[in-house]
Amino acid sequence: MIDVKDLYFKYPSGIEALRGLNLRIDDGEFVAIMGENGAGKTTLIKHLNGIFKPSKGDIYIDDVDTRDSTIAEISKKVGLVFQNPDHQLFSETVEEEVAFALKNFGYSEEVIDMRVTWALNLLNLESHRNESPFILSGGERKRVALAAILAWNPKVIVLDEPTIGQDYEQKERLRQLIIQLNSQGRTVIMVTHDVEFVADCEPRVVLMSKGKVIADGPALEILTDFEITNRASILVPQIPSLMDHLKDVCAIHKILNYHDAKNVLLEIARVGQRKS
Amino acid sequence: MALEGLKFKQIYSPIHKIDPRVKFVISCIIFSVTLLYIELIPLILLFTIQVPLVYLAHVFKEWSRSIKGSLYLTIMIFFLNLIFGYFSSGYQITSNAITYAIATSVRFLTLVSSFSIFFLTTSPDDLGLALQRARLPYAFCFAFTTAVRFVPVLADEAQNIIDAQRSRGLELDRGSFLSRVRKYIPILIPLIVGAIRRSLEMAEAMESRAFGAKDVRTNLYELEMSGRDWMVLIISLFALLFSIYIRYYVTIPSFEIPIPI
Amino acid sequence: MSQIETIDLSYLYPGAEKSTLVDINLTIEEGEFVMLTGPSGCGKTTLCRCLNGLIPHFYGGKMGGGVNVCGIDVKSNPMSKLSQHVGYVFQNPDNQLFALTVERDVAFGLENLALPRKEIKNSIDWAMETVGISELRNASPNELSGGQKQLVAIACVLAMKPRILIMDEPTSNLDPMAAKRMFDIVKKLNEKFGMTVILVEHRLDLLSTFVNRVIVMAEGCIKIDGSPKIVLNSLESQILGIGIPKVIRLYQDIKREGFDIGGIPLTVEEFASSFRRRLQR
Fold first, then answer.
1. ipTM score of the complex?
2. Which of B7, B151, B208 would you mutate first to test chain C, the one with the most C CBs within 10 A?
């Protein structure tokens, strides 16, 4: 359980990135953190595993203040997947790369072997096990970095902009993986500005602006609210935008899901046909 | 932290406006003059006359940071000289030795100070232009200014890499000396690979903008010595000559430093 | 003769086992706004590199067939010549800005061409004005946001007044607002100055209104080539697995159920008005 209380954070340069942020995430939740550039999203998630410690305010991970733990200790529970996989890759083989954290955390050889195999299979990387991570394509390197974090099975997974540079199929696979990980009981938090991806996942959405949380609720509520998305300077997804354009023919406003939209439009069409 | 004292700050002060080549000469002159003197009074004087220049250039905060940063080294120099003097004068600390040690330390501080002022008031672009004027090949000057441009980028990247690896349980502050050194491999490799990748991407972009099209390129800005620059240069040269004169023809009062016993 | 012409173009990277490009025959006329898309690894970036000389001059390898850009043969002419006709904006905003101020970066290409100083000054003023970054003239690139950096990159390339602008996934590191701002500028360059634009992108929903031609590649070949409406509505697009905008999928799905709203919609507005019109019948 993550509890952020009145969090303030100021960079050494003087920029105040977080100004009184309150957020509570329970175990097993699926949360998307969104907001414009400079809203403080990346700063916030770096607090979640202790890289940053608050200037003011507190963060508790399972009732333990992050100030009282080291990054390594918190990371056992909270796995942070950074945006750029090239900031992590350094090993001679993919296998070593995925095993790195497990070695650091002191697991036994057998457990390491088991977990590495599990992670490689989950991300379809078994065929690349003995290859150098540096010769892999961009998408494959991203998967290696993800596997390296999932390997120790943290109960909270934080993803920083996971969809950047991914094509349609890769995004689909990622979406299915995230949903699978969440359905298995892990807390998944993702920072993203990809509204369509969030609309497809339908998580809880936390909107940030200028270092604070300005909205917090189900995706269906937040992403169909034009006033709030405007304030957070994020783009409205296609489906809610479409339903807004058709509000004269459609009584139901809050639709986010593609299939719901399709069914509603078909219903209207059929009613229309019956009338004529 | 001490490195901050060398970072250029874009302000419009009379010192900033002086041609970089003249400023470089002045820094060298100041340092050469310190080498002329062993007496404390002129040395301390040389250090202190730089202070009004610092204020004139509005760089006091950064300058004092570089001085503070080099205090450690200065103190080391002081004690090293003292120890050397101790051994070379037959296992005793003479007043001479103390004076000499202080003098060397002040010389070092003056060196740091004058070059700090130089770097703080000279944009790396202008430095690059000065190097070009000195007939260094353009590729070298470009490499220089580009390196300066990317130092903050690399510093950020290094920090990101450290954060990313610490998030995988890497504990850099634990373990024996040897194991700690080994722990930097997961930091260095991504940094180096990243630097290589970056330079390849940059080379692509440079080629795509006609780099190397012509043997001689035009520079948008050129360094030109103004009347004021010449005046400053001439005054500085006179100051150098004057100092040489004083050194050889005028006795400077020196005093004995009492040995604290 | 077309502005860009490839004849049986194929390419093998040095040390690679399989050719990245296989028998590409492509013509692009002046003033077209082309979107180049396809699954990762299909060869889109490689194709772009063949158009400004990065292939074969920078990357080496084996180039089969020929490429002509503005009447110049790419294989036998140096990049310094080709880059005066083709501007290339890369994906990473950071690694294409080298100087310590924006102004000096925009001037870089022109300085390389040894143009007279006055001409350089005029060109960079015009380029910065056109892209809308004149107030960033003395800014250091480290102070800029990703979106601003990409705009500067466009100005750097624009200052050289190329006839063709190639952009390789320029918005992948940008948030949607910054991406939209960038596309608006590029659209202006295409409409107002008649620049040919070739844009490699995955985010088809943001772009479909700007472009007049979509080329989909897969496995080193061009699979589909045509107007956005036709390409994005085609069955083959679905099979290739590119991200078809939701409004088009909706159009296809409800048409399958017997309700045809008329023309293929590229935007939310088009869908809405077509749907409403169909209802009223």
1. 0.90
2. B208
